[in-house]
Amino acid sequence: MRIHTTTLKRGIAKTAEFKKKGLAEFAVNVGTKCGHGCSYCSTGAMLRMHPAFKQAGENPFASGYAIVDPATPERVAYDAAKLRQRGLIQLCTTVDAWSPEAQQYGLGRKCLEAILSRPGWTVRILTKNAAVMNDFDLIGKYRERVLVGLSLTAPLSKANIVAAVEPQASPIAERMEVLREASRRGLRTYGMLCPLLPGFSGRTEVYDLVDFVLDRGAEEVFVEPVNGRGPGLGLTEQALRDAGYASEAETLKAIRHRVGWSRYTRRLLENVQTSLLRRHALSKLRFLLYPARLMPSDELWIRQHGGGVRWLGNES
Question: Cα–Cα distances in Å, from 89 out to 92, 190, 254?
Fold first, then answer.
């Protein structure tokens, strides 16, 4: 892993898009490239023009490297004290504060300490790394002001397959154990089932994941189809083929075109809604959906059966 450092401009920033998603009003990010190396990641497409990539001499869409800002906690501390308007912060929105390179600098814990030391702030943690459990002592002191989320992108039955496209993230089993421990400690949790790729989002898989997060006390359940922006789908298909998962690669290939993506998204919503309805928990669903790639017939069906859907982008 090649680790580069950069200097970001902001500590705590307002985030209109994540507010629309119902995730947070503010964002903290600790770099521009996460070392987990998830092949489907859309951060490269969103941040591709950021000068940090040119300074590092790296391709925003490539893997094998990370770009991190070790000074992030200092700016976060400054903003946490200075800003008068306060609310819910997501840590993080485009990178991971507990990824391997972030752990080297202790960024997740330091940012939490900086935020929580000031009244009026609450934090939504989102990570794919089990190392967040090392900070449960701190989170426990502010348990009413922190939501803990571990991104679960496949059930245990598909854990070996999804590892091929999330090479440096903690295994699914470890992420699940962290959520179990959070629940045992009485910490607030939420479910983040994003993205659920085709091949990992059939009814059985969705039921297993939804049951797991609800049994851990999830206050909300966020679900999102995989983002087709940038080269992520192609990279994910290739990663599956390279790992010997030809069938799963073909399933992924089918959604690289609009018709396939639209059908997959509609089926995913149906499965998620059904799974939550059987637990009388549909009110917890936050299905995040950009409708631009939906076929008209699928969009019409979703708008008629839109329980839990958060419409995003220009169509929200």
Answer: 8, 15, 36
